[in-house]
Each structure stands twice: as C-alpha cells, then as structure tokens.
Amino acid sequence: MVAAPIELPSPSAGWDEIRPWRKLMRDELLARRAVLPVDELRARSERACAHVLQAVDIKAYEVLGFCWPFRGEFDVRGIARQHLAAGGRVALPVIIQKAAPVEFWSWHPGMPMQKGIWDIPTPKEREVLNPDAVLVPLVGFDRRGFRLGYGGGYFDRTLAMAKRRPFAIGIGYEESLLRTIYPQAHDIPMDLIVTDQSVHHPVR
Q1: Spatial distance between the Cα atoms of 114 and 122, rounded to a whole number of angstroms
Q2: What is the pLDDT of residues 165-179, one digit of tens each?
Q3: Contacts of 105 (CB under 8 A, 6+ apart)
Q4: Which candidate, 88, 83, 90, places its Cα nearest to that of 108?
C-alpha cells in the first residue's frame, strides 16, 4: 500500500519546498508506527528479518553493519547474532562528529556498551570495521530505492564517502512506501529494500 502524500510538492519543487514536506511525511510515518502494539511490532520485525535472510546471502559478506532498534524500527539483532555464529563479524554505527560520516565499531553480545546520540547503545571500545553489507533502517522509501531517514543525512554521507561502498539493504514497513521522496543530489539509493511484506528491487 502506498502511503497517502501530504500536499505533494510540484515536480519542479526545490529543496526549500521538499525539505518541509519530508519532515511532515517523516513525522506522520513515525507516528503511525509509534502506536503499534508490541506483539504486532515483534511479528512484523520477525517477518522482515526472515525476508532479509531469504533475499540476501548474508554469509557472503564478512562484515555486516546493523543498527540497534530505535523508535519502532525492526529489531535485526537476531540476524547479527546468526552472522557472528556463522563466523562473520558485525558492527554498529557510531556518530563521531555532527554532519559527518559515521564509523562502524565491532560488536558482540555481552560486550560493554555506552549511550550514544539519542541514547542509542554503542560499543564502549572503538574497534573500527568497514562493513561489506549494511542493514539500514528507514522511515520511508520509494520504488527507486531512495530512503527517507531521520533527516540527519548520516547514512547518505557514509555511503557516499566509503572507499569501498557496502551493499546497502534498507529495512522498514511496507506501508511506508511513497510515490517518491523527491531525491536530491545528496541522497544515496539502497541496493535492496526489504519490508515486513516483500522485497523491493529498486527501479533504476
């Protein structure tokens, strides 16, 4: 189901018009998932993770980047643990500097953690890894693979400046599919988008 647009900007709209539209759309999509019952969120998360494992051979990527669940995001820690058990390595993003690419620090269950930006847990020990693939949470997305995030641009900067770009898998709710996010020059499309209902191969 395609989410209903909020006063969709004109095709010729500039960033001054698109930016506030994105904020309104982001706020609405976040509000929708914020009211989901815990059991439904867990069930949707499990379905999305199953779709990831069916669609992607995670074992083919030595280092997997992933995000600690935040604000109703799907919990992909199970995938991370499976990857570790299979001999791979996993890493969490850490914001080192505002408006800059993130670093990915090695993670394993039971290791000492600390609160990072927005109180999201991050490893205490800085062991930087370069992910070969990364599971990227999204608030909204379109059929071209462009992702609507929280507005900070951290993942876009990280992917754009990576010496060896990881395979980027966006993960989120099927109903957060938008007609377009009005991608700008700074937006980096995902290589694949997986939801609780399906797998989307971006249309280029």
Answers
A1: 5
A2: 999 999 999 999 999
A3: 91, 92, 94, 122, 123, 125, 126, 127, 128, 129
A4: 90
Distance of alpha carbon 104 from alpha carbon 130, whole angstroms: 7
Give 115's strand partners: 121
Q: Taking the model in full, what pTM does it have?
A: 0.92
Q: pLDDT, tens digit, for every residue of 57-83?
A: 999 999 999 999 999 999 999 999 999
Token digits for 19? 């930016």
Cα distance between residue 107 and residue 90, in whole Å: 6
Task: State which amino acid sits at residue 187.
Answer: D
Question: Which of 143, 159, 140, 142 shows the shortest CA–CA distance to 93?
Answer: 159
Summarised one tens digit per residue, pLDDT across range 118-173 is 899 999 999 999 999 999 999 999 999 999 999 899 999 999 999 899 999 999 99
Q: Which domains does the chain have, with CATH numbers?
A: 15-200 (3.40.50.10420)
Contact status, residue 90 vs residue 66, Cβ threshold 8 Å: yes
